[in-house]
């Protein structure tokens, strides 16, 4: 089942009265703009599945070989003199695993989804993804249409006047009626602004023509704030919500900084009120009757969970305020937030503060399957473990959640160290998992990279390309002699990565670690394989809207386009494949897998609309360099909120690491 039926669309029917805050014409134009943005988003989702087919070169027995695509490009660039003969299809290696039920289930899902991606099942996935989006789209458009404005006269006065009244702005004062006869600000065809406040944002999210961008800056900020509250009234903040709000910000000719500031202020305000509430077990009920949401009572802060009692503390926390002279009334804030302003448990659920599903129990379940499993706070300098959702102060809470995973460790600090540049715009966690196994893999890779066998093998592979070596299954003899050093820890790591991916999917879907917010995922090496498995599990369960953006670095997984279309179906924002043709170690380690479907960590993804590719040109130490280069990669792909200063620290650490590698060869 998909997530189309969940959410809070049943209890937000109280209309928001914005009389004096906006005019009927502004409301109509906002409705038109929101409809246009969401229709564009719908078309973008549809176009993912309509990507033109890419057909690799045929090998023996009429089997397509996806590695041939990368080889073809090298041939076109003059890097290869000829195509090597493509081998017959190799039987897929039997998955031995570790015998656990979790691994068997995760591996079966991955194989099932990979197989179904090649069949008409992809059409069913498209149908369900679009159905889920339509339900969300109808919800947000309905909320805007429910806005009540009693007068049709433009509000008079200065936008900095008393309350929110009089915020007419400096835009068009005339207007007319649209094609349906409704009032509109337009006195001509809607257009986009000639001078963009944020050109980079406008490039990523091309603005939709509208009249609203010509309004006074404060009015446009107010419209964005209203939109954020209306989105939250749907009782979650999923991936579609954030993509929509970024498009709206661009169309209103506002900057990303303005949006991030408002998003931050709203998240901290909501979290502040949620922390003032104390969940109380309902009394006087039988256990089987007490399975629903818990009641919330007044905490020391004075807020209560009863109806209409949260609007005042929400306003006191800054919700509804644009600046000192422009703010929404208590009743207006309550109307915009709908049920979120009436029921305290909904605020708690947004941030994962759920008495029914405590975080500690979720982590206990995870640790039974994956040793050392933990979420480490990156916004805490000590990197402390996250065990209780109510332990995090309101100022550390965000509506945007990022989970980062390391896939190969040189020391225990590498669980956190590669991700220190992710910044404070998001609520960021590093996943600690299988530390011993990942340390063993890191140690094995270090041993091989520093060996003379690798030095000579690298030169031989470079002379003919990693793709030729994979397709011909021809490897330098010195490298094969030391293969056991890395094959065993890698094979174990692949099994554990699939288990970790399944556990991560459960933490997001079943346990709601993140609450009712979407999650972004970043990982390299085996962690990218864990993310791959997580997304496959979400696709199999039709769990749309839970994932915002994803970056997969050096991924040991197929590059087949339809597989990546399946992944993209559950990613609302960016899906970035980071690869390098110089990652010879990855190619060698992946040689026993079914390479006919390609290797994502070695080549770009083709034929999958919406999937971005980023090529890392130089990997001095091969696959092991990714743990040092993550900051540079995130900066280069334009990851939102990334702090570029962290790259300088990474580069300073990279030089001595490279010298150590050379001196020991």
Structure description:
There is one protein chain. The chain is an alpha/beta fold and 665 residues long. It starts with 23 loop residues before the first helix and ends with a helix. The chain is built from 22 helices and 15 strands. Helix 3 packs across helix 17 (483-509), helix 3 packs across helix 18 and helix 13 packs antiparallel against helix 17. The strands form five sheets. The chain has a seven-stranded mixed sheet with strand order 9-11-10-12-13-14-15, sandwiched between helices. Strands 1-2 form a two-stranded antiparallel sheet. Strands 3-4 form a two-stranded antiparallel sheet. The protein has two domains: 24-46 and 130-350, no CATH class; 357-663, Rossmann fold, CATH 3.40.50. It is a multi-pass membrane protein. Its main location: membrane. This is Membrane protein. It comes from Tolypocladium capitatum.
Short précis:
By secondary structure, the chain is α/β, with parallel strands linked by helices. Helices cover 44% and strands 9% of the residues.
Radius of gyration: 27 Å
State the oligomer.
single chain
CATH C-level category of the largest domain: Alpha Beta
Beta-strand fraction estimate:
5-15%
Topology (SSEs and partners):
Layout: H1 24-49, E1 57-58, E2 64-65, H2 67-76, H3 101-116, H4 121-145, E3 176-177, E4 183-184, H5 199-204, H6 217-232, H7 239-251, H8 256-276, E5 277-280, E6 295-298, H9 311-316, E7 321-323, E8 326-327, H10 330-337, H11 344-350, H12 359-369, E9 374-377, E10 401-405, E11 427-432, H13 435-449, H14 452-464, H15 466-472, H16 477-481, H17 483-509, E12 519-524, H18 526-540, E13 547-553, H19 561-568, E14 575-579, H20 584-589, E15 611-615, H21 626-636, H22 645-663
Parallel strand pairs: 10-11, 10-12, 12-13, 13-14, 14-15
Antiparallel strand pairs: 1-2, 3-4, 5-6, 7-8, 9-11
Helix pairs in contact: 1-4, 1-7, 2-15, 3-17, 3-18, 6-7, 6-8, 8-11, 12-17, 13-17, 17-18, 21-22
